[in-house]
Amino acid sequence: MQPDPAMAPAKVTVNPGEEYAAVARPWQGIPTIERTRKGRLWAAWYAGGRGEGPSNWVIAASSDDDGKTWSRPRVAVDPEWHVRAFDPCLWTDPTGRLWLFYAQAAGLWDGRGGVWAISTGDPDAKQPKWSAPRRLANGVMLNKPTVTRNGRWLFPIAGWRNIDPVSRLARQKVDWSPHAMESLIHDIGEEKDSNVFVSTDKLKTVRLAGRVQVPGAQHDEHMIVERNNGELWMLVRTRYGIGQAISNDHGATWGGKGESDIPHVVSRFFIRRLRSGNLLLVKHAPPDGKTRSHLTAWISQDDGKSWTGGLMVDDRVGVSYPDAVESPDGRMYIIYDRERSRAKEILMAVIREADITAGRTVSSDARLRVLVDRATGQ
Q1: 146: burial class by Cβ within 10 Å (0-12, 13-18, 19+)?
Q2: Strand ranges (DSSP E) for 239-276?
Q3: Are the C-beta atoms of 267 and 224 separated by less than 8 Å?
Q4: Of residues 331, 341, 338, 321, the one with CA closest to residue 372
Q5: Which of 176, 262, 328, 349 keeps 20 to 30 A from 287, CA to CA?
Q6: 149 in helix, strand or coil?
């Protein structure tokens, strides 16, 4: 074992083999989606082992026909030993580079984690060339960065304050020795919050800009929107649904911490500024207020003060973890998972603002429940 295996770069395999095929995946989920400038769609998610744990790895696939068909895995990110890769995030930056961010941690959680990234400058190539893995910061970044009007790239990286690494390592089916447990557990101090990292040089460097403790935060999974008045609005996953915080100094300090007026289950949501200037929100709206079902899309025309529409993307139980990207012509591609250990599906919806505000599909090119990938491992 290396002295600190979670700090070692993961093995990145292009065009991986059968060990990452659908039949080798008894579970999968937590997807992300991105679109290149030329229109190729990329999707990534993680699998490996029988659930969340030290055997996890990240895979990515692509589509050149607007999501009608998808490739087999084209990239696999797989750390060695009992270190997992998880919570991938795809993002096309303003220069056109495609980034695949992911987290690494020993076991399920080692108290420190780490956000890593690989990138390609030509994501539309027949065989894109990916950079070597690079570690950016402690923590986990599940959701996409935000580019502000003044050109700052903001990265929502979480420290998982509410997760106890000792109990999480002990739960893994690994014979951890007391020495191994002690050497693998880390304390990142003040970074155990909903952190904001910033880059002002196109990710040549990244630094901690600010952090906030939103009451009841759970796994954080926070996202940042720049409002029209210049303030930053952060929404955070909490035990009661969605919490919020506001910054008026570019993310250095945060006020207004507390519960938002957006009802939600304890799960991931998605919010993003659209090209129209409106906000897109994808969240659960189950009748019982508790179930991960009824994934619904909403539009705000007043910077999140109110929401209109309510297009039902998928009302089945077991749908969760939406991510989305918008094309230049206004189509929104929403990806999510369904029944990670049973149906084992990665699904997508393609809709427009008109569909959301109408509360039903009115666009001729709208598509719901599009299959991206289905695992078949037992």
Answers
A1: buried
A2: 241-247, 255-259, 270-273
A3: no
A4: 338
A5: 349
A6: coil
250: left (phi over 0), alpha (psi -120 to 50) or beta: left
**What is the pLDDT at residue 177?**
76
- Cα dihedral 363→369→373→374 (10° resolution): -170
CATH code of the domain made up of 5-374: 2.120.10.10
Q: What is the DSSP letter of 73?
A: P
Separation between Cα atoms, residue 146 and residue 212, nearest integer Å: 17
In the chain, domain spans? 5-374
Asked if residues 232 and 224 have their Cβ atoms less than 8 Å apart, the reply is yes
- Judge contact between 232 and 222, C-beta under 8 A: no
Largest CA distance in the chain: 61
Alpha-carbon distance of 346 to 212, in angstroms, equals 32
pTM here? 0.97
> Which residues on neighbouring strands pair with residue 220, listed in sequence order?
237
Q: What are the pLDDT digits (tens) for 222-277? A: 999 999 999 999 999 999 999 999 999 999 999 999 999 999 999 999 999 999 99
Each residue's pLDDT tens digit, 47-81: 999 999 999 999 999 999 999 999 999 999 999 98
- The Cα 281–Cα 255 span in angstroms is 22
Q: How far is CA 373 from CA 17, 29, 159, in A?
A: 16, 10, 30
Residues 118 and 9: beta-carbon distance below 8 Å: no
